[in-house]
Design brief:
about 325 residues; mainly alpha; single chain; globular
């Protein structure tokens, strides 16, 4: 993307965020400060669980593709939250891909290899979200009732998991490896210099486990947003959040502002009002989620750093 275009998009997104905050008014901020503590504690805990799922999947992905023990789970947990914290001041794609890749490099994984591992790791989320977008679209249109929507989501996730298992089976992995061997520049870009480096995908067992972790990660975030909404008094079915979440989350891929500032709020606002939520309640929520998520991320980042400090020697990284 050209620099001037990026700057224009960033300015537009920031102006959009300011307009949404202004539109929400002081009542929204009052609702944020007076949020229900029980609901906020549940949302905080759910964000913590999401961090555990994300760190565990990244470690599983690294070990499956790199085929070497690298660092302890606590180091991956720290890397995950530090990258997430950088996402508060940097575009999410840059903070996630760049931050986690640098962390893997510090775990003695080659940088180009690290970039590939993080990319594959994030593709599990993107793939899952795109699948759920299909039934979510029809649910938001009113074509699917609650029960049918849940069944449809379950079916597309099951089909997606089956597809991942099939693609990562030994036969397809060999075909991909053979194709890469015939594209020297791609092999060089990915730092594929020997037979071990030619492992581009996780083993089928690890891939299926990664789908499970992706489901856990994104489902806990769905309920996290739901309880944030409950904290500010919004009365809405959790299925509405399940339907809106994949569209809003995918907007972060294209966002050029820190944490998708502006575009993320607009997505929630539009989809919640489309789902029948009152405008003032939706505005209060979009302001609240920005404040709450920022606080949650900073808190869990601090916890992850403290956990990493509990490692007494470098040797324990390889025995954890």
């Amino acid at each position: 993307m050209k620099r001037w275009l990026r700057i224009v998009l960033q300015l537009v997104s920031l102006v959009l965020f300011v307009l949404i905050v202004w539109w929400a008014g002081p009542e929204a901020w009052q609702g944020v400060w007076q949020g229900d503590q029980r609901a906020l504690l549940i949302a905080l805990a759910l964000y913590g669980v999401a961090g555990v799922a994300s760190a565990t999947r990244l470690r599983l992905m690294t070990h499956s593709i790199h085929r070497q023990n690298t660092a302890s789970w606590r180091r991956y947990h720290q890397a995950n939250w530090v990258a997430r914290a950088f996402g508060l001041v940097l575009p999410r794609t840059l903070s996630t891909i760049g931050g986690k890749s640098v962390a893997l490099r510090s775990f003695d994984v080659p940088l180009k290899r690290s970039l590939w591992i993080v990319l594959v790791d994030n593709l599990f989320d993107v793939f899952l979200l795109i699948l759920v977008c299909v039934p979510a679209f029809f649910f938001l249109r009113g074509d699917l009732q609650n029960g049918m929507f849940v069944i449809a989501v379950g079916l597309v996730v099951l089909l997606g998991g089956t597809a991942v298992w099939w693609i990562t089976s030994a036969q397809w992995t060999r075909r991909l490896t053979k194709w890469v061997r015939h594209v020297p520049w791609l092999a060089h870009k990915l730092n594929l210099e020997n037979e071990q480096d030619l492992i581009l995908l996780p083993q089928s067992g690890a891939a299926v486990q990664s789908v499970g972790w992706a489901i856990m990660l994104n489902l806990t975030l769905v309920f996290g947003f739901y309880y944030m909404a409950q904290a500010v008094g919004m009365q809405a079915d959790w299925l509405l959040f399940l339907a809106a979440y994949p569209f809003v989350q995918l907007s972060l891929v294209a966002a050029v502002t820190p944490g998708g500032l502006g575009l993320f709020e607009l997505g929630w606002l539009g989809l919640l009002t489309l789902g029948g939520v009152a405008e003032d309640e939706a505005l209060t929520f979009v302001v609240a989620q920005r404040v709450y998520v920022t606080v949650f991320v900073l808190l869990w980042t601090g916890v992850s750093i403290l956990l990493a400090f509990t490692e007494k020697t470098a040797a324990t990284q390889y025995l954890d």
